[in-house]
Design goal:
Elements lengths: L10 H5 L7 H6 L9 H8 L6 E4 L2 E4 L2 H15 L2
Antiparallel strand pairs: 1-2
Length: 80
């Protein structure tokens, strides 16, 4: 896929250009059919890199990639 240039006000296609379906669900140990809880996305968004977040018995380390994907999911969920 050729690299997409972002037009003003059209940032969503650029943000999803390298999107891997289900990757955030796998990282957060949330089954694919379930919705990602906003509370978990908020926790990740407000946690420093390298710290851990607890969710349903799982300890999730907040990496740069996890945080980027969680912030994007949080933003896109707000559009609904």
């Amino acid at each position: 896929m050729p690299h997409m240039t972002c037009k003003p006000g059209k940032w969503i296609p650029c943000a999803l250009e390298h999107h891997k379906e289900g990757s955030l669900h796998r990282m957060l140990h949330v089954p694919k059919g379930e919705k990602l809880p906003m509370s978990l996305l908020d926790k990740i968004k407000n946690t420093e890199l390298g710290k851990k977040v607890k969710y349903q018995g799982h300890s999730i380390t907040v990496t740069r990639l996890v945080k980027q994907r969680a912030v994007l999911a949080h933003t896109l969920k707000g559009f609904q």
